[in-house]
Amino acid sequence: MTKQVIQTDKAPNAIGPYSQAVVAPAGSTVYLSGQIGLDPATGDLISEQVEEQVRQAFSNMSAVIHAAGGSLHSIVKLTLFLTDLSHFGIANNVMSELIPEPFPARSTVEVSALPKGALFEVEATIVV
């Protein structure tokens, strides 16, 4: 899939690994449910550490994307949920390592709580 990145100087530049907007070619749009850092084998959080939860959540998301017939290149929109925005830098760094350019559009939100006491959750929209 080829994505077209939308960039305008009339809005603030992206301040991380994301694009202002992304146009995806015609295809099937898949809306993924949020993934937290659960170990698929046990159903328990992989760790109490933020970075390990972020990495596992992205790994879980990747598995669902592949099951839907896509790849990480198929992502057009991500939403990140953090229980503490002071962990934003960790999530941003992991995302920049794992998600290929051109980066998808992204929103990041601080929430009061996540299922199972998770510290991070990611949801995605892909086009395959």
UniProtKB/TrEMBL annotation:
Q: Name one Pfam family in it.
A: Ribonuc_L-PSP
Spell out the GO cellular component terms annotated for this protein, sorted alphabetically and separated by semicolons. Answer: cytosol
Alphabetical list of Gene3D superfamilies matching this protein: RutC-like
Q: Could you cite one Gene Ontology molecular function of this protein?
A: deaminase activity
Cited InterPro entries: RidA, RutC-like_sf, YjgF/YER057c/UK114
The UniProt family comment states: Belongs to the RutC family.
Protein name from the UniProt record:
Putative endoribonuclease L-PSP
